[in-house]
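Render this sequence as a predicted structure.
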Amino acid sequence: MRMVLYDGSVVDIGGPVPDAPGYEPGGVIVGSEGLLGIVTEVALRILRKPEAHPDVLRPPPLHTEAANAVSAIIASGIVPAASR
């Protein structure tokens, strides 16, 4: 992300590593709504839309079973999604 500060200086924020550990300055800059500076360039990573799977309705008798079922679904590689 390239940004122009109030004094006219240009700063580059972020780096080549996506999801780097630590604070995420991009969220602070976007949340400042122009108070910290004006964003002039942004590099984005485009992700594929996850495949939607139809809902499976089954009331589990225990909360632990529900939590285990969700963990098993995600571990199998299925990304839960709501359909309209």
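Summary. The chain is about 25% helix and 15% strand. The CA atoms of residues 23 and 60 lie 38 Å apart.
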